[in-house]
Design a protein that fits this description.
The chain is of the alpha+beta class. Helices cover about 30% and strands about 30% of the residues. It contains 7 helices and 20 strands. Strands 2, 5, 6, 7, 9, 10 and 12 form a 7-stranded antiparallel sheet that branches. Strands 15-14-16-20-19-18-17 form a 7-stranded mixed sheet. Strands 1, 3, 4, 8, 11 and 13 form a 6-stranded antiparallel sheet that branches. Helix 7 (about 305-310) links the parallel strand 14 (about 290-295) and strand 15 (about 315-320).
Length: about 375
């Protein structure tokens, strides 16, 4: 099994170094070469202490930028450190090229993993040509600021150390759970990275092959050794899974433990929908359940309209279609329009909805929010 591991490790290193350009010296972008575009940053020695700014979507966000000319053909790996590491903090690397200065490329960066997280930029098609600007976005739904930024290190291909570090980062970096995690969890941080499942399967297959060769040409190994080879690969994958699960448990405690129901909602991934619905309830809707028609640019249900409906309960919600139902609306009903809807013309000043073949509806705007506007049907136009 040890021999199989050594052989597979050597093969993995060869895979990572394959087609790499000739080695260049590493390039260090010190923290002092970055400035805060959003939020604040101050120098403390060789590091930047960064503070975020609260945004309308309930995220604290800081954006650091550095105007640098970087030849992407010379550098394949990027490593950086933000302290203290925190599962609630999301990092996004961004850059734009000299050839297309108006087009920004971005890629999530591991925010929590083993020390010295490294990203293999070869996986991302936007990493090409000459770079004019590179930067980092830090954001969080909770208080994870101030944070300390130590700068970026750009490493060329053709070196084993950053290649192995990028693999370790891919496998150990925390991937925040979402609505799909109940069924599956990505095996690596980036979609195109080498999967540890393939490594574990290759390890087990190679170990079994060596045991079979020993059985044929030397002496039969114990039957338990065959099971041990398979079990060892499975246990390695389970340890990686347990690392993700334990980290997410700590994040869940950080986000929700000891908080009120309202505070928990405001820290959840759908906080903007909750806040929107609560505003409507507090400022407009009567205590007695009202009839509300939710309009959205989707043929069927989608996440936003379903979450909005849930948070508007116990009001009586009709949540289908793009347009108001022709024969189902009476004065006093509410229409909640989520975003722009093609074919629905809203004249807020004139107080009318127009759609279809000249269908009109007299309305009065009652509430406005970046996520949608609330109107009430009136017997006649308010003007």
């Amino acid at each position: 099994m040890i021999v199989a591991g050594l052989l597979l490790s050597a093969a993995s290193v060869c895979y990572l170094l394959l087609n790499s350009p000739e080695s260049e010296p590493q390039r260090l972008l010190s923290a002092s070469e970055f400035h805060a575009v959003v939020g604040r940053a101050r120098n403390e020695g060789s590091k930047l202490v960064v503070s975020g700014r609260m945004q309308p979507d309930n995220y604290q966000r800081a954006i650091l930028s550095s105007l640098q000319t970087i030849n992407t053909e010379k550098y394949r790996y990027i490593s950086l450190t933000v302290d203290p590491p925190h599962a609630a903090r999301e990092l996004t690397l961004f850059w734009r090229s000299i050839e297309q200065p108006d087009e920004f490329h971005s890629q999530p960066f591991p925010a929590l993993g083993l020390p010295g997280n490294t990203l293999d930029m070869k996986h991302f098609p936007g990493w090409q040509g000459d770079i004019a600007e590179i930067g980092l976005i830090m954001e969080s739904r909770t208080t994870t600021f101030p944070a300390t930024f130590s700068g970026m290190t750009l490493e060329p291909g053709g070196k084993a150390a950053p290649a192995l570090q990028s693999l370790i980062s891919q496998w150990t970096a925390f991937r925040n759970f979402d609505q799909t995690t109940i069924n599956w969890l990505p095996a690596s941080f980036s979609a195109k990275a080498l999967s540890p499942v393939l490594i574990a399967a290759g390890w087990s297959a190679l170990g079994l092959a060596l045991l079979l060769l020993a059985r044929l040409f030397w002496r039969p190994p114990p039957f338990a050794s065959f099971l041990l080879v398979i079990l060892f690969g499975w246990m390695l994958l389970d340890l990686l899974w347990q690392r993700q699960l334990t980290t997410h448990l700590g994040l869940t405690q950080h986000l929700f433990q000891g908080k009120s129901i309202e505070a928990r909602h405001l820290r959840d991934i759908d906080s903007e929908y909750y806040e929107h619905a609560m505003q409507i309830k507090r400022e407009v809707l009567p205590i007695k359940p009202a009839r509300i028609f939710i309009l959205h640019d989707s043929v069927q249900h989608d996440y936003q309209r379903l979450k909005t409906q849930y948070y508007l309960l116990p009001h009586n919600i009709y949540n289908f279609g793009l347009f108001p139902p022709v024969n189902g609306i009476v004065p006093g009903d509410f229409l909640l329009v989520l975003g722009d809807i093609p074919g629905l013309n809203i004249d807020a000043a004139g107080g009318t909805f127009t759609w279809g073949n000249g269908l009109t509806l007299p309305v009065q705007q009652k509430h406005s929010h970046p996520l949608g506007k609330l109107y009430q049907v009136v017997a006649e136009s308010p003007l």
